[in-house]
Amino acid sequence: MASLGTGTAVNGVAAEAARAGVEHMVFGSLSIAFDATVLRPRPWTVHQARWAAELIRAAPPGPVLELCAGAGQIGLLAVAGSDRHLVQVDADPAACRFAGVNAARSGRSRRGRVEVRRAGVDDALRPGERFALILADPPWVPSDAVGRFPDDPVHAIDGGPDGLDVMRRCLTVIGRHLAPGGSAVVQLGTPRQALTVGADSGPLRLQALRSYRPRGVLALLGGRDG
Predict the structure, then answer these.
(1) Among 142, 155, 135, which Cα is nearest to 93's?
(2) What angle, rounded to 10 degrees, do the helices at 93-106 and 6-18 form?
(3) Is the CB of residue 101 less than 8 Å from the CB of residue 9?
(4) How many Cα atoms are found within 13 Å in the side-chain-facing hemisphere of 112?
(5) What single DSSP character describes residue 132?
(6) How far apart are CA 86 and CA 44, in angstroms?
(7) How far is CA 80 from CA 76, 113, 202, in A?
(8) For 23-75, what is each residue's pLDDT tens digit?
(9) Which are the contacts of 21, defined by CB distance < 8 A and separation ≥ 6?
(10) Gyration radius from the chain CA atoms
């Protein structure tokens, strides 16, 4: 696991944001930088950030975690109205670089409230870490369908045979690291995937489902004793 210091992002943010090939997108109240090496932010996922922001207001004390964070826009927007510390995890170095840049541009990294960790979801957290709210934005496109999205990096969208390989790993992490009384908002492609996740969620319970078809769906998970 590599924890990326935000000072590097702060010092290099202007140069990185202006680099050739870098695009910018308005995402809620944020301006997000990205390029073709990472997944282009999906405007519909603003709903995931806003749902998380609503949940944060009543969540137990503790930080927020985002798994498979990409350029970081969903987690950053989710915590924009709070003082919560945010930990963002992604295995891809380019995604982590942009997550750090976007944290710096949002101003949160200057206040020490964002930590970007370059690691797989299985290796990113210490055993005792607990999070009041967890976001998961894993690749969910089935492997045999990734050719329908030629402009997207394959590693950022390929979710395995049924699109749920990475999601299952995220569920394990959520089950281990969700604080009592906390909740998780996860992003998937179809209601069927969400129902499969609900059935395979172990100590977690599928509490609500919001569909934004054909773009995707969001599922709310919590502890079975919550």
Answers:
(1) 155
(2) 90
(3) yes
(4) 0
(5) E
(6) 21
(7) 6, 10, 31
(8) 999 999 999 999 999 999 999 999 999 999 999 999 999 999 999 999 999 99
(9) 35, 36
(10) 16
Phi and psi (nearest 5°) for 68? Answer: 55, 55
pLDDT digits (tens, 9 = 90+) for 144-182: 999 999 999 999 999 999 999 999 999 999 999 999 999
What tokens does 72 get?
């970081």
The SS3 assignment for 78 reads helix
Q: Helical H runs in 32-161?
A: 46-58, 73-78, 93-106, 154-157
Query: What would the two tokens of residue 61 be?
Result: 């004390």
d(CA 22, CA 53): 28
Q: What is the rounded CA–CA span in Å between residue 89 and residue 3? A: 9
186: exposed, middle or buried (C-beta count within 10 Å: 0-12, 13-18, 19+)? buried
Quote the pTM value. Answer: 0.91
Q: CB–CB of 188/212 below 8 Å?
A: no
CA distances from 195 to 21, 30, 67, 111, 131 (A): 39, 32, 20, 39, 24
DSSP strands (E only) in the chain: 2-4, 23-27, 30-34, 64-67, 86-90, 114-118, 131-136, 178-188, 204-211, 217-223
Mean pLDDT of all residues in 71-81? 95
Max distance between CA atoms of the chain, in angstroms, equals 50
Sheet harboring 204-211: ordered strands across? 2-4, 114-118, 86-90, 64-67, 131-136, 178-188, 217-223, 204-211
